[in-house]
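Give me structure tokens for this 137-residue protein.
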Amino acid sequence: MRITPNFNFDGQCEEALNLYQKAFHGNITCLLRYEDAKKEDWSRELTEEQKRYIYHAELLVGEQRIMMCDNLDVDFVTSLALSLTLTFDTKEEVIQAYEVMKEGSKTIYPIQETTYSSCMVVFVDRFGFRWGLMTEN
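Here you go.
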């Protein structure tokens, strides 16, 4: 059994996918648009814009797969109850990833040293997802 995070967006999936790929040196292993998928997979008419939205994408970050999509079936609601934490080897890697991600974000805990991390930062990115970037002591 494996737990795979699945991020849902409201038309911004491709932008987020490219940002996360850059920030975390990820590898996009799958990218399907709605126009590429079987029409039977959803039950509504799509606009020309929606046909270009991401139906299913996968990003490999280290050895962790993250799934992403533009979900057209539910209203998009931001929740900060769950976050993803990425653990890096060095402080410089944490800072580099945060520099890529920080535009339009809201910092919860600024870059700092803590009891359990020589460098950590917690923020909500511009898409409404909560991230923790850290090193371990």
